[in-house]
TrEMBL record:
Lineage, uppermost ranks: Bacteria, Bacillati, Actinomycetota, Actinomycetes, Frankiales
Protein name, UniProt field: Ferritin Dps family protein
Cofactor annotation: heme b
The species this protein was found in: Pseudofrankia inefficax (strain DSM 45817 / CECT 9037 / DDB 130130 / EuI1c)
Domain Ferritin-like diiron: 29-177
GO CC term, one of those recorded: cytosol
Gene Ontology biological-process annotations: intracellular iron ion homeostasis
PANTHER family: BACTERIOFERRITIN, DNA PROTECTION DURING STARVATION PROTEIN
Entry annotated with the keyword Ribonucleoprotein: no
InterPro entries: Dps-like (IPR014490), Ferritin-like (IPR012347), Ferritin-like_diiron (IPR009040), Ferritin-like_SF (IPR009078), Ferritin_DPS_dom (IPR008331)
Domain of life: Bacteria
């Protein structure tokens, strides 16, 4: 028997005593309230990105806009999936996902954009992706081993945000003289 493991009787007793805490056990090492707040900020970021990509999809015009607009639509769908993951995790941790449209842009790390030109849209979307990448990288480091489930969720989201940035950079390089 190893010294660092809690004995089974103690684990069983704690599980019964703290049943109302759901998945959050004594082994959870992060600041729960702060993790929920950080996840809500990320949720706001993802929702603003959905709205920005949707707007860009519907307003993209000009030469080559079809392929770029299709990418905007795909990114919007993937950003919505990120928002859904975050909302589910917030709920799982006992929090309440904040979808309040009145405060959405204030809580978001990325900004909404209504650029009229395709090149500007791509640039602004790339900026937003870079913000998400930097932010989520910091969150992953901050979570470390204190909340491995949330960390892995952010790692998966980060991987897709990096793909988005790469896609947008490719378009930007083709579009710029």
């Amino acid at each position: 028997m190893t010294d660092f493991l809690t004995d089974v009787k103690t684990l069983r007793a704690r599980a019964r005593e703290q049943i109302e805490r759901g998945p959050v056990t004594d082994a959870y090492g992060a600041d729960l309230a702060r993790v929920i707040d950080v996840c809500n900020e990320a949720l706001a970021t993802e929702l603003v990105c959905v709205l920005r990509y949707k707007r860009h999809f519907f307003t993209a015009q000009g030469l080559g806009s079809g392929q770029v607009a299709a990418e905007f639509a795909q990114h919007a769908t993937e950003e919505q999936a990120h928002a859904d993951l975050l909302a589910a995790r917030i709920t799982q941790l006992g929090g309440s996902p904040d979808f309040d449209p009145d405060t959405l842009t204030m809580r978001s790390h990325a900004e909404y954009d209504a650029s009229p030109g395709l090149l500007e849209m791509v640039r602004e979307d790339l900026v937003a992706e870079r913000i998400a990448i930097a932010s989520y990288t910091e969150i992953i480091g901050w979570l470390g081993e204190k909340d491995p489930t949330s960390r892995r969720m952010f790692e998966g989201i980060l991987e897709q945000e990096e793909e988005h940035a790469d896609d947008l950079l490719t378009f930007l390089q083709k579009m710029e003289p």
